[in-house]
Amino acid sequence: MPRLVIDDREIEVPxxxxxxxxxxxxxxxxxxxxxxxxxxxxxxxxxxxxxxxQGPFKGVQMSCMVDAKDGMVVSTTDAEAVAFRxxxxxxxxxxxxxxxxVCDEGGHCLLQDETVSSDHSRRxxxxxxxxxxxxxxxxxxxxxxxxxxxxxxxxxxxREYAGYRDLGAMQIADKVYFGRFRDGRLExxxxxxxxxxxxxxxxTDKTSRFKVRxxxxxxxxxxxxxxxxxxxxxxxxxxxxxxxxxARTNPDVNGHFICDAGxxxxxxxxxxxxxxxxxxxxxxxxAGIGRxxxxxxxxxxxxxxARKYGPESVAALGSDRNSVETQCALxxxxxAKGYLPPVFFLDPAARRKTCEAVARLDERIAFSRSELxxxxxxxxAGADPLNEAAMSALAxxxxxxxxxxxxxxxxxxxxxxxxxxxxxxxxxxxxxxxxMIVANSIPGExxxxxxxxxxxxxxxxxRSEDATLQSRIEDLxxxxxxxxxxxxxxxxxxxxxxxxxxxxxxxxxLYRAGKRAGVFYVLPGANSYSSAVLSENDGRTxxxxxxxxxxxxxxxxxxxxxxxxxxFPDTRRLEEALARLELLIVIDYLPTGLENRASVFFPSSTxxxxxxxxxxxxxxxxxxxxxxAGGVPILGGSPEHVFRPDVPGGGQKPAWSILHGLExxxxxxxxxSAEEIIAxxxxxxAIAPLRYPVDGVRVIPVQSKxxxxxxxxxxxxxxxxxxxxxxxxxxxxxxxxxxAYSDTLLESIPEPVLTMHSADAERAGxxxxxxxxxxxxxxxxxxxxxxxxxxxxxxxLLPRHQNLRWQKIRGFPALIDPERIAAx
Amino acid sequence: xxxNESRLGRIMDGIGGIVDSYAVTxxxxxxxxxxxxxxxQKKVLxxxxxARIVLTRDPEGEERCVSCYLxxxxxxxxxxxxxxxxxxxxxxxxxxxxxxxxxxxxxxxxEEACPTLAIQLTPxxxxxxxxxxxxxxxxxxxxxxxxxxxxxxxxxxxxxxxxGFDKGEHPGEAKPVDVKSNMP
Amino acid sequence: MWWIVGxxxxxxxxxxxxxxxxxxxxxxxLVERKLLGRLQIRYGPNRVGPFGLLQPxxxxxKLLLKEDIVPKGADRIIFFFAPAVxxxxxxxxxxVVPFSSDLKIGETRIPVxxxxxxxxxxxxxxxxxxxxxxxxxxxxxxxxxxxxxxxVRGAAQLISYELSLGLSLVPVVMLAxxxxxxxxxxxxxxxxxxxxxxxxxxxxxxxxxxxxNRLPFDLPEAENELIGGFHTEYSGMRFALYFLGExxxxxxxxxxxxxxxxxxxxxxxxxPLAWFLIKTMITPVFFIWTRATLPRVRYDQLMQLGWKILLxxxxxxxxxxxxIALLVRS
Lengths: 824, 184, 330
Ligand code: SF4
Ligand code: SF4
Ligand code: SF4
Ligand code: SF4
Ligand code: FES
Fold this sequence. Notes:
The complex is a heterotrimer. Chain A is an alpha/beta fold. Helix content of chain A is 27%, strand content 18%. In chain A, the strands form eight sheets. Chain A has a seven-stranded mixed sheet with strand order 33-28-32-29-31-30-34. Chain A has a six-stranded mixed sheet with strand order 15-14-24-23-22-16, sandwiched between helices. Chain B has two domains: 1-34; 53-159, Alpha-Beta Plaits (2-Layer Sandwich). Chain B contains five helices and six strands; from the N terminus they run αβαββαββααβ. Chain B starts with a helix and ends in an 8-residue tail after the last strand. Chain C is globular. Chain C is mainly α. In chain C, strand 1 (100-105) and strand 2 form a beta hairpin. Chain C has one domain. The model of chain C has no long low-confidence stretch (mean pLDDT 83). Chains in contact: A-B, B-C. Chains A and B meet through strand 6 of A and helix 2, strand 2, strand 3 and strand 6 of B. The structure holds iron/sulfur cluster (4 copies) and FE2/S2 (inorganic) cluster. FE2/S2 (inorganic) cluster (FES) is lined by residues 32-35, 43-48, 62, 64 of chain A.
């Protein structure tokens, strides 16, 4: 470990640390443009010059290019270094346009900061300024190439880090240009990171273009609730609107970046287009009613139903986008009033998959996203990383860049920005295949393993009847055998119920076999972890409640932040059941349509408006701090000239506070305390009361109670099903519950398509690109057909697309007779 | 000089000072007052007097303000607010822009901060109102037809963005780089 | 029957004195503003009526029509009555001031004062010290920190200067041999006491400036630190009472200075009443001149002046006067 002296202060850093980072550890910020922790050093900008006074060499050098060495004495303030940096700024400004007033970077621009701090204010250069033409780069990123200082951060991120090819450097010498070959949307779903990365205003956020300066934003650390990864963000609001999301560095979770859906999908909180969509005031039967009135009516009606039919006639439904606080408050309310305990899942299969995944996470095998980045062999089982948890694909890309081998076992035509092997099989075959890979990677009968592990290993199939598959498996097994840090990425969407537990057991087996192995689950929603923990001992789901509603034993339903009509696969049945209810109370911040059916509707606060905890898929509790107070945004026209004491459209309250009101009948800001959250489940003990709100604590146990208990998958190839199995799939854009209400994302949403294997299509006589009618039990879905070879035979894929009325499915697994798909 | 003398001296000094001041005010009593009888006598105020704020236009007649938020940031009383927007041709402008003159202290910092010479203080100070909210001026109330104190400056002529002037057409700019040719 | 006549005469006298005092107070407002203006090379009020002469009327109307605001949490009763105390005190004092030599109607001599108390001077001192209640209670009842600070300052200041005010009059009593103000005036038949008691005069003058809270001793009001001090929260007529009190007390103090030191109504050529008016006006005019000239003193300076300079000076003066009187008489 080299020890060196920087600005008269000594520090010891690990071998290979750059001097610029060593200074950073001392709190000395050496100016930089091209160096970035995640992207590494290229020495392109010459801004990080410091003077080496003693050590292996002397003189002015780039601190980002030099590894810290013993005996170095570095001065960042040496006159020569300072003068050098001043010249660098002057030559960068030689071509820099006079744009700051109209540049959205102004106010948080690195170049601006360094120009001001190096005191450069007069242009001495008499020559002309270099100019470039700009390009249209899609709806998110604005291009203004004149401002480029050639740090290469964009192309290094876009091409090397993220693995997309459509943006890069062109031309030579001082004419280097960063852009696409021709105008067009950036293909990468991580393109928003260019906005954060570019030290100047070449790439700026188009969704908030010209609307705000960084210094005016009310900013607070937040957490993205777009998927189960819980990427860390900084949200910024002005004029009662959230206007900009930036990535917040968290080495454990998202590193330095976030995906475009999370960055630009914020406008649901502002009320979508025109800010009008979001329901902002309490309503009864679709008509406005004051906060007090709503509470009085809802409380009275709940009491009434409980009195007439008994408290068990009241049921409650939460969701994965509830915060932990809300879920605990819901549980507490139901317990206190004797209502049926709340459910968080729609159907038993979803519950079981999530619960099993969550039950298996422990400190031995739970991989965080950053650990995934350094995995050297990754089996992706029944997951589509880019579509289900985009940032995990970026992590896998890093694993790939470090030489990791990645295999995807999934029926879908998975695509990711790197090379991987794809074994497209139907969902029921997934565990068997990765079980075979794992089994074949452990030589012999697993000598040296303990009894349980050995027993589990012996139960695994090793051989496939399919010779090509067998050789492929053996090849992969050889790779896995050589791996030191293998990972299993397991989805919880399309897979069979037993797969998540099986994935954990396989990871555990590899762990027992001496590898630093881990499992990385992709869960269905932002707070699925907490949903699963809280419904651990209660097997009921919304399916049971629905039956009870139909049977008349449940008369009142409280729905907390669940977009039922979007999520429930059978709209007709749902409508009929809802119609039988005597009382429907809805708490939500999205205009789900339920607010108009509700007997009483309460608007709740979004995560931007209230402090809320979310637990991500690896069991990490993260706190989203409130950013602003909410209310109807004042954008698009000057505010009225009136005095008023209240916030227009500020009728929302945190859902947990509303639930507290429903429990006690008292309005006010009471709610749920840290102690009550902890009392809700032992797992929440890590959210210690003294430290609430917690950020970044993992609530997983040291060792899971269950080991090698999964149903083993053996007994040969599963029989091919009769008919095509319909799988509902998620896309990065267009299927999310929250993103559906964010008009900022509209342009990204691709047209919905039904995807089918070419062999299946040929058998059914269907052609790629045809409009087809898919006849389901509940009605017909008309959709365009896409045919591909890169997927499994025997399945058809239908996205839960927001522009598609797909909610016509009676039950799962849904087997479709090919004859029910007809060309229009 | 011993201490007592100095104390006595100080006392005499003090008394002298008081008597002097009485004399001064007494003398003033017989001087002609210097008051200007506003509003009958109106003084012509210097051009740079800091009073009512206007938004000026550039020589082409376009709004100068580019909604850069600098005046808003520098304003010590936070009385300027605005929202920037993009016009069809890419020009950045203020969708709305308001100054709350009930709060403005006419310090002139906004004018100093403005990079486009859009916001300017004028010598017109006579605009009292009976209702405070009437002192909230919107862009329509602030925008004037002329250029104000500077009749030449056009910010977009000097910026690099392609608004009004195409890339490479602003004074002092080279032709845009042709990325598809490596000819020097 | 005689007592009815006496009563009527008394009523007439009271009415005349009240009317004159109120008139003077209103006039003083104008005089002060005009004079202050000229002393500062300004015009002073010149908009209402010819030369701004109707300004007091406008001021009065304005104050009458202003909303009467009672602050939240104020002690309403005390808040209502405190200003009255301040206005009442100088009026009461005016009862013992002899304005002129006795009026002769035929054989009857009517004294031109309301009550010739044989302890008139003590009465003045006793009543004058009451005005501290108006200041202290008004500030306290307003439930405002500024008022509170103002009234605390006011109370401390009034108490401090009360002492030298009283003591500075002892030599006067010694010289006149009576507490009756009429006797004191009569004792100055040959020469006004200012000639033999300049120190007393000075102390009395300074103390009365402090008593009436005027510059340079207006710490209880101190606009720039206390925003008006004890009357910060007052508005409308209640504020007007404080205002009125201050101006009446200026006039009354002027009258008292005339009585104690300038020989009262005595003087050659002009009728006694005219002399009295002229002498009465000297003090207020000097107050105004002072206001235009001197800045406010610091609080510690105020206290030092009162306790460390004026008070010892008074005592020395009394002893000296006593000594000289003994010498002269023996
Ligand atoms: S990139 Fe920075 S320095 Fe350049 S115009 Fe924009 S804000 Fe100014
Ligand atoms: S566009 Fe931005 S990130 Fe890319 S090279 Fe230029 S300055 Fe660097
Ligand atoms: S003059 Fe001063 S106070 Fe008024 S708007 Fe400008 S910066 Fe603000
Ligand atoms: S500083 Fe000038 S250009 Fe910028 S917003 Fe203010 S008035 Fe407009
Ligand atoms: S940061 Fe070191 S050269 Fe750019």
